[in-house]
Write a structure and sequence with these properties.
The structure holds 3 protein chains of 3 kinds.
Chain A: H1 2-18, E1 27-32, H2 47-54, E2 61-63, E3 69-71, E4 74-79, E5 85-90, H3 104-115, E6 130-137, E7 140-145, H4 152-157, H5 166-172, E8 186-192, E9 195-200, E10 214-219, H6 223-231, E11 237-238, H7 246-250, E12 255-270, H8 280-288, H9 292-300, E13 304-305, H10 329-338, E14 346-352, H11 355-369, E15 374-380, H12 382-390, E16 402-408, H13 414-422, H14 440-450, H15 455-472, E17 475-488, E18 491-492, E19 495-496, E20 502-503, E21 508-509
Helix pairs in contact in A: 8-10, 13-14, 14-15
Chain B: H1 2-29, H2 34-39, H3 45-55, H4 61-73, H5 87-122, H6 127-141, H7 144-158, H8 170-200, H9 203-210, H10 215-243, H11 247-252, H12 258-267, H13 271-299, H14 301-304
Helix pairs in contact in B: 1-13, 5-6, 5-8, 5-10, 5-13, 6-8, 7-8, 8-10, 9-10, 10-13, 12-13
Chain C: H1 4-13, E1 18-29, E2 32-44, E3 49-53, H2 60-67, E4 76-86, E5 92-94, E6 111-114, H3 128-140, H4 144-157, H5 163-166, H6 176-188, E7 194-198, H7 206-223, E8 226-231, H8 234-240, E9 243-248, E10 251-257, H9 258-263, H10 268-276, E11 296-298, E12 303-305, E13 324-337, E14 342-357, E15 362-366, H11 373-381, E16 388-393, E17 396-397, H12 403-412, E18 413-416, H13 430-440, H14 453-467, H15 484-496, E19 502-506, H16 514-531, E20 534-539, H17 542-548, E21 551-556, E22 559-565, H18 566-571, H19 576-584, E23 608-610, E24 620-624, E25 627-630
Parallel strand pairs in C: 3-8, 3-9, 6-7, 7-8, 15-20, 15-21, 18-19, 19-20
Antiparallel strand pairs in C: 1-2, 1-4, 4-5, 9-10, 11-12, 13-14, 13-16, 14-23, 16-17, 21-22, 22-25, 24-25
The chains are: A alpha+beta, B mainly alpha, C alpha/beta.
GO biological process, one term (chain C): peptide transport
Subunit structure (chain C): The complex is composed of two ATP-binding proteins (GsiA), two transmembrane proteins (GsiC and GsiD) and a solute-binding protein (GsiB).
Membrane topology (chain C): Peripheral membrane protein
C-alpha cells in the first residue's frame, strides 16, 4: 500500500505548488472532443489531429480561414497543360524548429516518404500519382506525375502533405508522430495522454507572429465538462459545441458563439441499381418530400444550411443549382404515381448508430411516410457498417437500399467531394459510391476535372457534373451542418475553418 | 503462507493463458474490419490494404495469436494500431492516473462506508439508520454522470473553487474521486451494516459485553474486527472494478486513465490495445484476489493456520 | 418508585450476595410486549450454588441475562422488580434500574458469566491471551504485560496443559472442553463474587462435562463465589446445586434445597420433570429395558396425570436370524493437503467393527464425539462408503445388491437425525414430507382395496401421524408451526412410512428437552412393541441408553471396546473406558453426589493418524454370556 500512497501524496503536494497561474505569459487552452491520435500528418485521418499538427507543421500550400487555397512554403508554381508536371518555387530563409534549413531537398524527402507505398502511410493516396520528385535547385522542385492530376495544389494543401524536418524524420523514424518538428508558428513541448502542449516559435517566418506563448490542446470528451471549462476560463476555445448548449454560450457575456457553414454534406444515398430507386422520378419524389428547413431545425436545432448541389458551398467549384427540390408533397406524390408507386413502397435505411444519425434518420422516416414510403431504420455500429456496406465486393451483392450518410472533403476541392462518392468507377470497396450511381456525363466530367490544373477548365467540368447529378438525384440532398464552437471574447485571430480544422497562427489574447 | 503464495502465483499462469485465448478470440470476432477503420473514412481500398499488411492482419488468425502470445510473454503487446506507439507505453501512461484516482476514491469511500454502515447498524431502526440507508441507496442509484456534471456546475462554474477537469493537482482529485467513490461508499455502507448486524448477534459479542467491555470497544474492536473479514472481500472486489478505470468518471472529468483508453480503443478497434488492456484487467483482478486472500488470512486466524 | 424504607428493610433482612425480587422481563413481539420472565424472586448467598432449572421457554436463560442487564442488548427490557447486588465494597446497588451501559464497570468484575456454547462464545480473531487479559486490563487497570501474566495464571488455575503456549493461540485451535476452560478462566480473571453459568456443559461430552463441573466447584470453594447454574439437566443439578429454583413458563414454580426438590417435589411440573429425567442406574437389576413412568403436566392446570405402569420391553425375537450383521466394517477418510492434494493422514473413523442386530432388538452404539458411532450408522445406511468389511441385511450382503436392490434396502432401513429442524423441508407440508418416502420408493401402502393410490397414501399419512401422537389434520401444516418434539415425531412418522425393519436413530433425542425426550423415547419403544422394529440407537447419553436398549456397544476411537447385554454392561462394565464413561455421568440424585474433588483432565483423543500408523485392533473376547470386551490399552489409561 505504501508504495502506491507515497508517490501519490508526493504528486498531490507537488501539484499544489504548481497550481498558481502564471499571469505574465499568454497561455491559450483549447478543449477538444477527442484524443489526438498522432502528430505525423502523413499518417492521420482525423481532422482533430490534423489541426493539432497544423500548429507546428506546414505544407507548400494551405487554406486560409475561408477555405481559399493560399501558398505557404511555396511562393509560386507552374504547371504543364496536361497537369502532369508541376514546378514550385519555395520560400527562402525558413528554418525548422530544430534549426534545419527548409529547402527543396527537405520537400523531396517528405514527398518521397509519403508517396512510397512501402511506408504504409494513411495519406499515401494524396501523392499516389507522383512518379518522380526532382530537386532543380535549393529552392525549386519539380513534381512529375504518372497520370494527369489537376488538383495537386489542393492535395499539397492537405495537412497530410505537410513538411517534417528531414533531420527529425531521420532521428525519430517511426516515432516521428510523437516528435513533430516543422516550420509552423508553434514548437512541440509535450504530449501526454490527452494533453498536447506547444510553445511560441520565436523564429517564425511570418513577422510578428505568433502572439501566444503557450497553447494547450486538451481532450475533454464530455460536452458538459468542455463547456464548463470555457465558462470558468480554463479554456478559451472549445469545439464542437453541441447545439443544445448554444444558449449557455450566448447567455455569458464573456463568451462568443461561432456559427458558420462547414463542408460536411448530409444526404441519403439511394441505391440506383435497386428497385424502386432505379427510377429517377422516385429519387426526385423523395427529394421533394423532405422539408429541408425542418431538417435543419429538427436535427441541428437550426444550425445547418441547405445542400444546394452535390457538394457544399464551401468547396471549390461549387455551383448552386437553379432548380431546387423545394418541399412539395403534391409534386412528390405525383412523381411517385407516375413511376408506378401511387401508394408508396417500403424500404430499409441504414446509417450509423450515433444519436445524431438516428435523429436524422427518424426525421427522414417521418417525412417520407407523408407520401406513403414506409422506412425501416436500421442503425449500424461502425464495424457492422464496414462489413455490410463498404466491404461488399460486387454491386449485385449489395444489400443497402438507402444509406443516411455524411461526407467532408478534406482537400477542400470539388474533386474529393465528387469522385469518391459519385464516380461510376468508385463503387465499394474501392471508393464510397454507395448509390451505385453511374452516369457517363458525370464520369467524363469528373475525369476531365482532375486531368487539368487549368481552373477555367476544371470549373466547367465540375459545373457539368453537378448539374447532371442534381437532375439524376442519386441522393436525397438534406443539408450542410454548421460548425459550432464557443470562444472567449478575449481570443482573437483564432479560426474554425469550414473543414473543421483550427487555425491559430494569428491567435491572440487581449 | 509462503508456500501458499507460491502455489497461488503458479496457478495464475494457466488462468492468464485461457484468458489470452478468450481475449484474442473475442476481439477478433468483433464485427468490423480494423484495417478500414484504421485507414480512415476517406481512405482508398489501396490504403486499406496497406494498413492491413502493416498491422499483420493479412496473416492467418493462429499466426496472429502465436505472435501475440509470444510477445505478450515478454511484456510486449505490439504497437497501438491507432497511434503506432508501443501498447506498453500507451497503457503505462494511463495506468498511474487511474491507480491514484482509484486509491483516493477507495480510501474515502471505504472509510465513509464503514462509518455510515456501523452508525446505521448500531442505531438499527432509528432515524440515523434510515437516513444512512437512504443516503446509501441514493448513492447507488444516482448516476455518476449527472453527479459529475452537477458538481462541475456547482464547484467550478458557480463557485470557482475547483478546476472543472483534468489531472495534476490535489484539487483535480476532489470531484472525480467523490464521484467515483460514491457508489462504492454506498455499497460499503450497506454491506458493512448487514455484516455488522450479523456479527453483533454472535455469542462472542455477548461474551465481550459480559466481560464489561464498554459499548465503544464492543463496536469497534470485537464486532468490527470480525465484520472486516467479509468487508475485505468487498473492498477487493470494488477496487478491482475501479482499477479498470471508470469510463464515465474519466470521461466527465477528462481524467487521462485506462477507462477512457479502453473506450477509445474499442471505438477504434485498436485490437492490440484492447487485448493488452483486458489482459491487464484480468491480471489486476487476479492480483487483487491474491491480496484479498492474504489480507483475509491476516484478519482471520482460522485461515492463517490451516 | 420504590420506598426507601422498603429498600432499607431488605438490606437488613438479606445477608444475600444477590437478591432478585419480583423480576419481570419483556420482549417486543408482533402483538406488543411479551413477558418472558414474570415476577421471579430468589437469592444467592456468598459461596452458595443456586441452580435455575427449566426447559426451553421457561425463562431461565433470560433471567440469567437480566442479572447483568445483558438482556437489554438482546432486545429485552426489565419491566419490573429489583436486582439487588452487594458489591465487594459492601455497597448495595439495584442493577434493574440504571442504564445498561452504565454497568460495564461491574460486568466481568463483580459478576461474571460463562455461556453454553464454548465454540462460539470466544472471539475468533483475538488470541486466548488477549481475550482473558482484556477483562483484567479493563477492571484492574493493569498494563498489558501484567494482564498477560494474570491471564497465564488463570489458565493454570483452570488446569490447562501448557498454558504459556495457549496464550497466543486462537480459539479455533482448541477443543470445546478447552474453550470452556478458557471461558471460565476469563470469567474468573477478576475474581467476581458471583458467577453465572448458563448451561456451561450442555454442548460437551460427558467426560469433559464432569471435568468442567468439578473445576467450577473447586474454584468456587477456593474463591468463595456465589454461583448461579442455569441448566435443564437434572443430573447436573443433583451434582452441583445447594438450592434449586424451578422455572416453568416464565415463572418460578418451586424453590428449595436440592435434597428437598429431588425427594419431595411439590409442584406438579417439578414432579413431571423429575419423572422424565433418565437416571443412570434406574434399571439396576432389570434385564429388559423399560419405558419412562412418565407424568404428564396438563398445560392449563399444571396438574400431573398419574403414570401408567411402565411396560417392559420384551420384543427381541432371539430365535430368528439377525436382521443386520456387520462384520469387520472399516471406514476411513483421507486427509489431503497442499497444492497437489497429497495424502497427509487418515481419519480412522470406524475400525473393524462387528455386531449384529436381531429382529425386535435395540442395539445402542454409545461413545463420545468422534468415536465413530455416527459414521457406522451412515455407512450402514449407504450415506458413506465403507473402506472394507461386509454388511448383511436380512441375510443379503448389501455390497452385492444392484441399484434396484439398493433402493429396496433404503426402504427397509430408515434414518432419524438429531436435528428435527434441519431434516424437514420448511417449504413442504408435513403431509408431503411424510408421504415423500412412499412416493420416492413407489411404495404402495397396504390398505383397503378400491382406494386410489393417492387416497391410499393420504390415509397412510393420517395413520402414521396418529401413531406418533399427532393429528391427521397436521398433514396440511408446515414444519415451523410445530415444536421441536413434534417435529421429531414427524420425522419418526416419515421414517415409518415404508414399513421399515430397521431404524437408525442417530442422537434422535439429544436436542430435546428432557420431558419431550422421555416422550419420544417412550414412543420409539411403543412402536417397537407394536411393529417389531429393530433400532440401532446411536447416543452419547448413557442414561437414555440404559432405558432404551437391549444390548449396548461402547465405541472408542472407531472401535467397539465392549459389547453386551444392557444389564451386563451397565452393572458389570469390563472395559476401563466404559467405566470411565459411566463414572462421568452426573447422577440425578443429590444423595449419591460424589464429593470427589479430584480434578479430571485429558482430552478425547483424535482418530486422525498419519499414513502407515495403523491402529491396533484387538478382538472382542467373551467375558460373560453374550458379553464381550476388547482387551487392549486403548482408552484405558487414566
Amino acid at each position: 500500500m505504501n508504495r502506491f500512497v507515497l508517490p501519490l501524496l508526493a504528486g498531490l503536494l507537488a501539484g499544489t505548488a504548481l497550481a498558481g497561474p502564471a499571469f505574465a505569459a499568454k497561455d491559450l487552452v483549447v478543449g477538444l472532443p477527442d484524443n489526438i491520435t498522432t502528430l505525423d500528418p502523413a499518417d492521420i485521418n482525423d481532422t482533430l489531429s490534423q489541426s493539432a499538427s497544423r500548429t507546428m507543421l506546414q505544407g507548400l500550400f494551405g487554406f486560409d480561414k475561408d477555405m481559399k487555397l493560399v501558398p505557404l512554403l511555396a511562393e509560386s508554381f507552374t504547371v504543364n497543360d496536361t497537369a502532369t508536371e508541376y514546378t514550385y518555387r519555395l520560400r527562402k530563409n525558413v528554418t525548422f524548429h530544430d534549426g534545419t534549413p527548409f529547402n527543396a531537398q527537405a520537400v523531396k524527402t517528405n514527398f518521397d516518404r509519403l508517396a512510397n507505398p512501402a511506408n504504409r502511410l494513411k495519406r499515401q493516396s494524396l501523392l499516389a500519382m507522383l512518379a518522380e520528385t526532382v530537386v532543380v535547385d535549393d529552392y525549386t522542385i519539380t513534381l512529375k506525375l504518372a497520370q494527369p492530376f489537376g488538383a495537386l495544389n489542393n492535395n499539397l494543401a492537405h495537412p497530410g502533405a505537410m513538411i517534417h524536418s528531414p533531420k527529425a524524420l531521420e532521428t525519430y523514424g517511426k516515432e516521428i508522430g510523437r516528435h513533430p518538428v516543422g516550420t509552423g508558428p508553434y514548437k512541440f513541448v509535450s504530449w501526454e495522454a490527452d494533453t498536447l502542449k506547444v510553445e511560441k516559435n520565436d523564429k517564425y517566418w511570418k513577422p510578428g507572429l505568433p502572439k501566444i506563448d503557450h497553447v494547450t490542446l486538451k481532450s475533454v470528451p464530455e460536452n458538459g465538462s468542455r463547456i464548463a471549462m470555457l465558462q470558468t476560463n480554463e479554456a478559451q476555445f472549445i469545439y464542437p459545441l453541441p447545439s443544445e448548449m448554444v444558449k449557455m454560450v450566448e447567455a455569458n457575456n464573456q463568451l462568443e458563439l461561432i456559427d458558420a457553414p462547414s463542408i460536411v454534406a448530409r444526404y441519403v444515398a439511394l441505391n440506383t441499381m435497386k428497385k424502386p430507386f432505379n427510377d429517377p422520378r422516385v429519387r426526385q419524389a423523395l427529394n421533394y418530400a423532405i422539408d429541408k428547413n425542418a431538417y435543419a431545425k429538427v436535427v441541428y436545432r437550426g444550425y445547418a444550411g441547405p445542400l444546394d448541389s452535390a457538394i457544399p458551398s464551401k468547396l471549390g467549384f461549387h455551383v448552386t443549382q437553379p432548380n431546387q427540390y423545394t418541399y412539395d408533397l403534391a409534386k412528390a406524390k405525383a412523381l411517385l404515381a407516375e413511376a408506378g408507386y401511387p401508394n408508396g413502397f417500403e424500404a430499409e435505411m441504414f446509417g450509423r448508430n450515433s444519436t445524431n444519425f438516428i435523429r436524422g434518420m427518424q426525421f427522414v422516416q417521418q417525412q417520407l411516410s407523408q407520401i406513403g414510403v414506409k422506412l425501416t431504420v436500421t442503425p449500424l455500429e461502425s464495424g457492422v457498417e464496414t462489413a455490410r456496406i463498404w466491404s461488399v465486393e460486387k454491386p449485385e451483392d449489395a444489400t443497402v437500399q438507402m444509406n443516411y450518410s455524411g461526407w467532408s472533403a478534406s482537400t477542400g476541392d470539388a474533386d474529393w467531394g465528387l469522385r469518391p462518392l459519385l464516380w461510376g468507377k468508385g463503387f465499394p470497396p474501392k471508393f464510397y459510391n454507395v448509390a451505385y450511381y453511374k452516369n457517363d456525363t458525370v464520369d467524363t466530367a469528373i475525369e476531365a476535372g482532375i486531368a487539368t490544373a487549368d481552373d477555367a477548365k476544371r470549373a466547367e467540368a465540375y459545373r457539368v457534373a453537378q448539374e447532371q447529378i442534381w437532375k439524376d438525384a442519386p441522393w436525397i440532398f438534406l443539408g450542410v451542418e454548421n460548425l459550432l464552437a464557443g470562444k472567449s471574447k478575449k481570443l482573437t485571430g483564432f479560426y474554425y475553418v469550414a473543414d473543421g480544422g483550427l487555425q491559430m497562427e494569428e491567435a491572440d489574447l487581449q | 503462507m509462503l508456500k501458499y503464495l507460491v502455489g497461488r502465483i503458479a496457478g495464475i499462469l494457466p488462468v492468464l493463458l485461457v484468458i489470452s485465448v478468450f481475449v484474442f478470440g473475442f476481439v477478433h470476432l468483433l464485427p468490423g474490419d480494423p484495417a478500414r477503420l484504421v485507414a480512415g473514412p476517406d481512405a482508398t481500398q489501396r490504403d486499406v490494404e496497406l494498413v492491413r499488411q502493416d498491422l499483420g492482419l493479412d496473416q492467418p488468425l493462429w499466426v496472429q495469436y502465436g505472435r501475440f502470445l509470444g510477445n505478450a510473454v515478454q511484456g510486449e503487446f505490439g504497437r497501438s494500431m491507432k497511434s503506432k506507439r508501443p501498447v506498453s507505453q500507451e497503457i503505462g501512461e494511463r495506468f498511474m492516473p487511474t491507480l491514484y484516482l482509484t486509491v483516493v476514491a477507495m480510501v474515502w469511500a471505504t472509510l465513509a462506508g464503514l462509518l455510515i454502515g456501523v452508525a446505521s447498524a448500531t442505531r438499527r431502526g432509528r432515524w440515523q439508520d434510515h437516513v444512512g440507508m437512504v443516503v446509501a441507496v441514493s448513492g447507488i442509484a444516482f448516476p455518476s454522470f449527472w453527479l459529475g456534471l452537477l458538481m462541475i456546475d456547482l464547484f467550478s462554474v458557480k463557485l470557482g473553487w475547483l478546476p472543472t477537469s483534468g489531472y495534476g493537482t490535489w484539487q483535480h482529485y476532489v470531484m472525480p474521486s467523490l464521484t467515483l467513490g460514491l457508489g462504492v461508499a454506498a455499497v460499503m455502507a450497506r454491506f458493512t451494516r448487514s455484516a455488522f448486524i450479523e456479527i453483533a448477534r454472535e455469542d462472542y459479542v455477548r461474551t465481550a459485553r459480559a466481560k464489561g467491555v464498554p459499548a465503544r470497544l464492543v463496536v469497534w474492536k470485537h464486532t468490527l474486527r470480525n465484520a472486516l473479514i467479509p468487508i475485505i472481500t468487498m473492498v477487493g472486489l470494488q477496487f478491482g472494478f475501479l482499477l479498470g478505470g471508470s469510463i464515465v468518471v474519466e470521461t466527465v472529468f477528462s481524467w487521462p486513465g485506462l477507462g477512457r483508453l479502453l473506450v477509445d480503443s474499442v471505438n477504434y478497434r485498436d485490437y492490440t490495445v484492447i487485448q493488452a488492456e483486458i489482459l491487464l484487467f484480468s491480471l489486476e483482478f487476479i492480483i487483487i484476489n491474491l491480496l484479498v486472500d492474504v489480507l483475509y488470512a491476516l484478519a482471520n486466524p482460522e485461515i492463517r493456520y490451516s | 418508585m420504590r420506598g426507601a424504607a422498603a429498600a432499607a428493610k431488605a438490606v437488613d433482612a438479606a445477608p444475600a450476595l444477590l437478591s432478585v425480587e419480583g423480576l419481570s422481563v419483556a420482549f417486543d413481539g408482533e402483538h406488543g410486549p411479551v413477558r418472558v420472565v414474570d415476577d421471579v424472586s430468589f437469592t444467592v448467598a456468598p459461596g452458595e450454588t443456586v441452580a435455575i432449572v427449566g426447559e426451553s421457554g421457561s425463562g431461565k436463560s433470560v433471567t440469567s441475562l437480566s442479572l447483568m442487564r445483558l438482556v437489554d442488548y438482546a432486545g429485552g427490557r426489565i419491566v419490573g422488580g429489583r436486582i439487588r447486588f452487594k458489591g465487594r465494597d459492601g455497597r448495595e446497588r439495584d442493577l434493574a434500574t440504571p442504564p445498561a451501559e452504565s454497568l460495564t464497570d461491574m460486568r466481568g468484575n463483580d459478576i461474571a458469566m460463562v455461556f453454553q456454547e464454548p465454540m462460539t462464545s470466544l472471539n475468533p480473531v483475538f488470541t486466548i491471551g488477549d481475550q482473558i487479559a482484556e477483562a483484567v486490563m479493563l477492571h484492574q487497570g493493569l498494563d498489558r504485560k501484567a494482564a498477560r501474566d494474570e491471564a497465564l495464571r488463570m489458565l493454570e488455575k483452570v488446569r490447562i496443559p501448557e498454558p504459556a503456549r495457549l496464550l497466543d493461540r486462537h480459539p479455533h485451535q482448541l477443543s470445546g472442553g478447552m474453550r470452556q476452560r478458557v471461558m471460565i478462566a476469563m470469567a474468573l480473571s477478576c475474581r467476581p463474587s458471583l458467577l453465572i453459568a448458563d448451561e456451561p456443559t450442555t454442548a460437551l461430552d460427558v467426560t469433559i462435562q464432569a471435568q468442567i463441573l468439578r473445576l467450577i466447584r473447586l474454584l468456587q470453594d477456593e474463591m468463595g463465589m456465589g454461583v448461579i447454574f442455569i441448566t435443564h439437566d437434572m443430573g447436573v443439578v443433583a451434582e452441583v446445586a445447594d438450592r434449586v429454583v424451578v422455572m416453568w413458563r416464565g415463572r418460578k414454580v418451586e424453590e428449595g434445597t436440592v435434597e428437598r426438590i429431588f425427594q419431595a417435589p411439590q409442584h406438579p411440573y417439578t414432579k413431571a420433570l423429575l419423572s422424565a429425567v433418565p437416571k443412570l442406574g434406574a434399571l439396576r437389576g432389570q434385564d429388559l429395558p423399560v419405558r419412562f413412568p412418565l407424568l404428564v403436566v396438563d398445560d392449563a392446570k399444571a396438574e400431573a396425570a398419574p403414570p401408567a405402569p411402565p411396560p417392559v420391553q420384551d420384543t427381541v425375537r432371539a430365535a430368528d436370524a439377525p436382521l443386520l450383521e456387520v462384520r469387520d466394517l472399516t471406514t476411513r477418510f483421507d486427509v489431503r493437503k497442499g497444492i497437489f492434494g497429497s495424502l497427509k493422514a487418515r481419519v480412522h473413523a470406524v475400525e473393524k467393527v462387528s455386531f449384529a442386530v436381531r429382529p425386535g432388538e435395540t442395539l445402542a452404539l454409545v461413545g463420545e464425539s468422534g468415536c465413530g458411532k455416527s459414521t457406522t450408522g451412515r455407512t450402514i445406511m449407504g450415506l458413506q462408503s465403507a473402506t472394507s468389511g461386509t454388511i448383511r441385511f436380512d441375510g443379503v450382503d448389501t455390497a452385492t445388491l444392484d441399484s434396484n436392490g439398493q433402493a429396496k434396502l433404503k426402504e427397509k432401513i430408515q434414518y432419524i437425525f438429531q436435528d428435527p429442524f434441519a431434516s424437514l423441508n420448511p417449504r413442504m407440508t408435513v403431509g408431503f414430507s411424510v408421504a415423500e418416502p412412499m412416493l420416492v420408493h413407489d411404495y404402495v401402502p397396504t390398505s383397503k382395496p378400491g382406494l386410489s393410490r393417492r387416497r391410499a397414501v393420504e390415509e397412510r399419512v393420517a395413520e402414521l401421524l396418529t401413531q406418533v401422537g399427532l393429528k391427521p389434520e397436521h398433514a396440511r401444516r408446515y414444519p415451523h408451526e410445530f415444536s421441536g418434539g413434534q417435529r421429531q415425531r414427524i420425522c419418526i412418522a416419515r421414517a415409518l412410512a415404508c414399513d421399515p425393519k430397521l431404524i437408525i436413530a442417530d442422537e434422535a433425542v439429544a436436542a430435546l428437552d428432557v420431558s419431550i425426550q422421555a416422550q419420544i423415547v417412550n414412543l420409539l419403544m411403543e412402536l417397537q412393541a407394536k411393529r417389531g422394529l429393530s433400532y440401532l440407537f446411536i447416543s452419547h447419553d448413557m442414561a437414555v441408553v440404559e432405558r432404551v436398549s437391549h444390548r449396548v456397544a461402547v465405541m472408542y476411537l472407531g472401535q467397539i471396546v465392549e459389547l453386551g447385554p444392557r444389564r451386563a454392561v451397565f452393572e458389570n462394565p469390563q472395559h476401563p473406558y466404559t467405566r470411565r464413561l459411566m463414572a462421568a455421568v452426573p447422577i440425578a440424585d443429590p444423595s449419591r453426589r460424589t464429593r470427589d474433588l479430584r480434578l479430571l483432565t485429558g482430552e478425547i483423543p483424535s482418530p486422525i493418524r498419519s499414513i502407515g500408523d495403523e491402529p491396533a485392533v484387538q478382538p472382542l473376547v467373551p467375558v460373560g454370556e453374550d458379553h464381550f470386551v476388547a482387551r487392549h490399552a486403548v482408552g484405558g489409561d487414566f
